[in-house]
Amino acid sequence: MKINRQERNRTFVVFLFFGIWGLGIVFTLVRHQVFNYSRYLERVKAQSKGIVTLHPRRGTIYDRNGEILAISVQSHSAFLTAKEPDRCLKLFEHLQRTLPVSTPDAGEIRRRIRRGDRFIWYRRKLNDEDYQRLATLQKRLEEPVLLHFIKEYRRVYPQKEVAAHLLGGVGIDEQGLFGIEYGLDRMVRGRGGKVRVQRDARRRVFAVEPIDETRPGRDVTLTIDVPLQYMVQRELELGVRRFNARAGAAIVMDVHDGSILAMASYPNFSPDLAWKVPYKRVRNKALSFLYEPGSTFKVVLAAAALENRVVTISQEFDCGNGHFVIRNRRIEDVHPFDRLSFRDIIVQSSNVGAARVGLALGSERYYHAIRAFGFGRPVALDLPGNEAGLLKPARSWSEVSPAFMAFGYEIMVTPLQMARAFNAIAADGWMVEPRLLKKVEGISLDHAKGYRVISTDTARQIQTIMREVVERGTGRKSRVSGLTIAGKTGTAKKVKNGQYSNSYVSSFGGFFPLPSPRYTLFIVVDEPRTLYYGGDVAAPLFQSICERMRITERVFPLELAQG
């Protein structure tokens, strides 16, 4: 009897336990399926549905003749899923032997694998060869679900380093970083779309509903000519290396409409890896290199003095045998002259003679002439790093400012600003803004028609003087047999640590063929170390480019062109 009572008690306890356990289950089910129904329903919807952003294709960039400069192509990116960290680490070491990533990236990937992250980039924007290597490896894996691929657009530059500083580059997510890619980013990048996707329990997509349409970027055609750009880049590189210089820049413009046909900077870089290149190397020196122009600025002095009728080209000035002291500041000439006509002050590049003309011109008239030539404001191009230069207002000039500014000191300019000024002389006094855009898909471009900066007569007089600079003056090393060229040399000391140093900037600007110029070419070489005068460094480089343009661009003297 006692045993039966114990058995009943045990049975009761067991039933009571299972009864309470069962009630707990029922209560939990009721709580989840009745009271928390809405919350779990929303969670299920969130897991089965989602919004996916679609990245648009960036617009293609062409040169003036339809050659592709930049294009976005579909590529594959590889990522890992570390839901099984040990297996994933083993896979990662296998991948490192097949297609390794950098040491810092490898360390970060290992850390994220051990943490169990479900999405870890391995390599993005793979080229076709690398993708095939990883895809072949994936097929051989015991756990292929650990390695995945998705499609992304990859920016490609078929011309390699040609026009790299001008084009700029994009980041890993196709965002413009600098150059045209940044300046025209809103046009070129397009607009991303969105779709609503539904997934099954295994996370496979079984339905897609468009929400916002993807709009690809606009195609852009530049004024650049690829063969000419390549040649100018090559000649600039050879020139910079020949004189062991620090850097250089060269610009070729169409005289009549301001189209930039070539814009080169050196040292160069590959735009495919632009996001990895230090900023100093990717800076477009034609736009952003600020320097005192030296004697090339005497062309602006000549324009101001002749237009304001302060001088005539035959008027003589005392050049003091190469020495002139004003307010305890000394001005010297490389080659001393007693007296020179205004024409020969420019031809022989006399600083003393130019200083006397600058003083005769005066601050107000000189300042307004300089402003009219566009100095003190950036060139109208949608490019980052486009510097305005430095031009003090006339009220801030000292008594000696007109004298020193006459030969290109106390003012900071860019190579492109100087090219714009020289182009106005070549265009008979008509100032046109340099332009890079020839055509943009779906947009009508309104190119500024320009304005007159000096009279035709003044411009023609300066053209004549600049032709003599090349024929018998400081620019003789720019001469090309059978081609009439007008030009001007420039040499200026650089300021370092607040004082003038023994480093120089050498430059030469000019246009050809006379009497009806078609092209303006301006060259700057920064810190040449073997020779440093503009006539010895930049003028021969100008000559090399002109000789090749004579063939490639079919530049002939007027009498041959007409015959």
Protein traits:
563 residues, alpha+beta, Penicillin-binding protein 2a (Domain 2), Beta-lactamase, 5-stranded antiparallel beta sheet, 22 strands, 39% helix, 23% strand, elongated
Task: Please give the structural blueprint.
Blueprint: H1 2-35, H2 37-48, E1 49-54, E2 61-62, E3 68-80, H3 85-98, H4 103-115, E4 120-126, H5 128-140, E5 147-156, H6 164-167, E6 169-170, E7 176-178, H7 179-183, H8 185-188, E8 193-199, E9 205-212, E10 220-222, H9 226-242, E11 247-254, E12 260-266, H10 279-282, H11 285-288, H12 298-307, E13 316-318, E14 323-326, E15 329-332, E16 339-341, H13 342-347, H14 351-361, H15 363-372, H16 401-405, H17 415-426, E17 430-431, E18 437-440, E19 451-452, H18 456-472, E20 486-496, E21 499-512, E22 519-526, H19 534-552, H20 558-562
Parallel strand pairs: 2-10
Antiparallel strand pairs: 1-8, 2-3, 3-4, 3-5, 6-7, 8-9, 10-18, 11-12, 11-22, 13-16, 14-15, 17-19, 20-21, 21-22
Helix pairs in contact: 3-4, 9-19, 12-14, 12-15, 12-18
